Amino acid sequence: MDFADGALSAFRxxxxxxxxxxxxxxxxxxxxxxxxxxLGIFNFAHGAIMVIxxxxxxxxxxxLGLGQxxxxxxxxxxxxxxxxAVNRLLVQPFLAQPNIILITVMTTLSGAFFLENxxxxxxxPRIKQLEKIVDGxxxxxxxxxxxxxxxxxxxxxxMMLALWAFLRFSWTGKAIRAVAQNREFAELSGIRPERMYxxxxxxxxxxxxxxxxxxxxxxxxxxxxxxxxxxxxxxxVILGGLGSIPGTILGAYLVGFGEAVSTYFLGAYWTxxxxxxxxxxxxxxxxxxLMGRE
Length: 294
What we know:
Layout: H1 2-39, H2 46-63, H3 68-91, H4 100-123, E1 137-140, E2 143-146, H5 147-169, H6 171-181, H7 183-188, H8 193-215, H9 227-240, H10 245-266, H11 268-285
Antiparallel strand pairs: 1-2
């Protein structure tokens, strides 16, 4: 009976941890998936934009004392503006180049370093943390988690549903999809591809800023906060299938629960190696990801 109780308690703890991690990865990976599906590139500045969003929210909500709502709005606005700037300065000038993917790897990596060092210069090296949206704890599957983590679990799928509905039913979303499928035909139809790229980057960056605000309340904010989440988000997007929103959701939950199980049974030291091993194994079997197309 004691063994059964212990196993059930362990299962509950792993389930709760996996659900929180998966929801975070959904938030972080959504913007990456949107940019890839639109332009076919990875934005390596995505994690740094997330950090800037967290810092802006901290400045407005805590340093200036304007409250959490004002901090969140400021973070979304600042992140979206940075996303537009990244697109305009680091991506659009090279769209006509045949090796656009390699070029944007270098330019967006440079942008990430610039943003991280700018954050260090502006906010300094001392760690900071945002206030939780909901105080106290709630019980999930018999395990206590913070109210803020419960908000993350609820908001993540709603955010992905809203993104899917936007791309599916709104005129702008359909225009973004049209540009992603055939830029020349979309341009002949009266759609301006450069404007759609800017909108896609702005939405992607705003999603990154929102993820930064959520993450900044449960982890300490540092200039390099976005490095590890960026790697996990890239694994999620590639594993689920490049350009597939449902695949991104599936990949996020697989990675999140896989990390929780591996951490519990193998420890944090071996978790990263095990994740990459499974990731490579799956791609050997399905090179286009779990829900990716040829």
